[in-house]
Specification:
The complex is a heterodimer.
Chain A: H1 2-17, H2 19-44, H3 55-73, H4 79-88, H5 91-96, H6 101-130, H7 140-166, H8 168-171, H9 175-188, H10 200-208, H11 212-222, H12 228-258
Chain B: E1 2-15, H1 19-28, E2 31-45, E3 50-54, H2 61-68, E4 76-81, H3 90-96, E5 97-101, H4 113-123, H5 128-141, H6 157-169, E6 175-179, H7 187-204, E7 207-211, H8 215-221, E8 224-229, E9 232-238, H9 239-247, E10 251-257, H10 267-270, E11 273-278, E12 281-286, H11 292-302, E13 305-311, H12 315-324
Parallel strand pairs in B: 3-7, 3-8, 5-6, 6-7
Antiparallel strand pairs in B: 1-2, 1-4, 8-9, 10-12, 10-13, 11-12
Helix pairs in contact in B: 9-12
Classes of the chains: A mainly alpha, B alpha/beta.
Chain lengths: 265, 325
């Protein structure tokens, strides 16, 4: 475990060295919230509730789900460093170290995520204080369960990114794959539209996929939409997916490292 | 210490067709070609040896090193480093070895050198005493004090390579793999690096396998060289033995005569000599059958000379001969 803290620290420090860069990407995501807000205000002019949310709840949903999305995937997509390592051949050094590949990537990613999370949670808090409709967690219990659920969601997101990154060992490029993956996640995770607002049959699909656990579950828990019992059930579902995908990623990694080709020199 | 038995590595290369039509075709069905990067290579290196591993570009040097470090899996045959199979026990092997790849960097691009060393200390779980001793030693020998607190991205190549080799040795590895560590370095840094490699090998008994295209690295460091060409072993032995084998001990003597003179060598000497004239200069390339002293004596008995320059077999020529054979 101690060995892996080196990866956590290296990425934490690297991310801090680029905090200006982080700030600008962060502004771009803020603009995205404004766009979503404009769309939903138009919708709410004609009806008072959507998917069981009134306008104030929809605003909270937008800000919280966007914060969670940003924390997981905005600058710290685990597939990116992997495909860059493979393409540039620097993967030799990852395999030279006395550490397991997947675990080292997890700790690296955690290091970056810490910095991203710090920015975004501070931003969310600012929004809560300044914008009347954006609310704090529904209760202390909700806040605690939210954090737990977000950690689980993070692990699932990390594994999905790791899996797509590892596919670069076969495809040698990950750009297309990443775009498809992001589109799927945006749609089926509740990041783009609350899952409750989707047609029934689509909600059915969301229920059997892991993506809902990434963003929709923590956001609903934050808003107090699930009672404690339901929250714990949802967190168990998250734990199942996290474990399942982690094992899948490790198996794929084992297969991938057997077919490493080192590019250049 | 290092053992390679029937070591073989094949790559599958996907060939892309020419132009747009070729690209579309390769989307559906790509042609494959098998490349034998390393073929049935055998060698054994003992503890504390410093071996030069040379060969032309694309000969399979780096591929061999990547198999010895556990990065690549051999297609056939086996390797063992300190008694461990790197392909099966990569992590265990990693603790025993250090490596520098001159074309790539193992340092964190955005962090200061000192911070990288700290991170490696954690990663290899190096104890404080050993770490401090190594750090002080390497810092002073490689003169890294002036740039240790700068981010790696701001370092010159010479500074970075010194940091690279120090980074590879912090955890006291038993075996050090150096893949073109002196590439692109100026003569000062190169000499400093060579001294350092020598010191590590002699004082600490670290076994070193060195690949390079700079044969003066090999001449000044390695007692033994292994030559690989087209994936197969071409030679394994001392530099002297290599020169003996490939150049037939040919040497050249260049005379500068005081005055132009059209002297001819006696027939029994001329048979083993190649004479080139250029005004007052005269170059005689001769093989082992004639002694330099005999040629010298003969020339001096005929005419007065003002300068003389004798060259033994040139390692470049010898190696070129092996590469082309």
């Amino acid at each position: 475990m101690k060995r892996y803290m080196a990866f956590f620290r290296s990425e934490l420090e690297t991310a801090m060295a680029y905090r200006g860069d982080f700030f600008f990407s962060f502004l771009a995501d803020f603009i995205l919230i404004l766009v979503k807000l404009a769309v939903w205000s138009a919708v709410f002019q004609h009806r008072s509730t959507v998917a069981g949310f009134d306008f104030a709840q929809m605003m909270t949903y937008l800000f919280v789900s966007q914060t969670v999305t940003n924390i997981y995937a905005f600058k710290n997509d685990a597939s990116r460093p992997i495909s860059s390592k493979i393409r540039k051949g620097t993967i030799v050094f990852d395999l030279l170290r006395p550490v397991e590949f997947t675990k080292a990537r997890l700790f690296e990613n955690l290091g970056q995520t810490m910095v991203v999370a710090m920015f975004n949670l501070a931003f969310l808090l600012g929004c809560i204080l300044l914008i009347p409709n954006v609310d704090l967690p529904a209760s202390f219990a909700c806040a605690g369960l939210f954090v737990l659920s977000m950690v689980c969601g993070y692990v699932i997101m990390f594994c999905v990114c790791l899996l797509s990154g590892l596919l670069t060992f076969w495809t040698m490029n990950s750009w297309g794959m990443r775009n498809i993956r992001n589109a799927i996640i945006a749609f089926f995770s509740g990041s783009l539209v609350p899952i409750g607002a989707l047609p029934e049959w689509m909600q059915g699909i969301c229920n059997v996929l892991p993506f809902k656990s990434i963003i929709y579950t923590p956001t609903m828990i934050y808003m107090g939409q699930y009672d404690v019992r339901e929250s714990l059930i949802q967190i168990s579902v998250q734990l199942f997916w996290a474990a399942f995908l982690w094992i899948a990623a490790r198996l794929l990694c084992g297969a991938a490292l057997k077919r490493v080709q080192v590019n250049g020199g | 210490m290092i053992e390679a038995k029937h070591l073989t590595k094949d790559y599958t290369v996907h060939l892309k067709g020419k132009g747009l039509s070729g690209m579309v075709k390769s989307l559906v069905k790509s042609e494959k070609k098998i490349v034998h990067a390393v073929q049935d290579v055998n060698f054994s290196i003992g503890e504390g040896e410093l071996v030069g591993y040379i060969g032309p570009n694309g000969a399979g040097k780096s591929t061999t090193i990547k198999m010895l470090t556990g990065i690549l899996q051999p297609s056939e045959g086996s390797v063992s480093v300190c008694g461990i199979d790197p392909a099966k026990n990569r992590i265990q092997n990693a603790m025993n070895i250090g490596a520098v790849f001159g074309q790539k960097t193992q340092l964190w691009w955005d962090l200061p050198v000192r911070e990288t060393f700290e991170l490696l200390k954690r990663m290899y779980q190096i104890n404080d005493k050993v770490y401090q001793r190594n750090l002080d030693d390497y810092m002073s020998f490689l003169e890294m004090g002036s740039f240790a607190d700068q981010p790696v991205r701001q370092l010159s190549l010479g500074q970075r390579m010194r940091a690279e080799i120090a980074a590879s040795l912090l955890h006291d590895p038993k075996v050090l793999f150096l893949d073109e560590p002196t590439i692109g370095l100026d003569i000062n840094v190169k000499l400093n690096m060579r001294e350092f490699i020598k010191k590590i090998n002699e004082e600490r008994g670290v076994t070193v396998l060195l690949t390079t295209h700079d044969l003066s690295d090999i001449e000044s460091l390695a007692r033994r060289i292994i030559v690989i060409n087209h994936g197969t072993l071409g030679f394994d032995g001392t530099i002297e033995a290599l020169a003996e084998k490939y150049s037939d001990g040919k040497r050249s003597i260049r005379f500068t005569l005081q005055e132009e003179h059209d002297l001819a060598l006696p027939a029994e000497m001329a048979a083993h000599c190649l004479v080139k004239r250029d005004g007052r200069h005269m170059t005689i390339v001769h093989d082992k059958a004639v002694e330099a002293a005999a040629i010298l004596g003969f020339i001096m008995s005929k005419t007065a000379i003002s300068d003389i320059d004798i060259k033994g077999p040139q390692i470049e020529d010898v190696v070129l001969e092996v590469y082309n054979s």
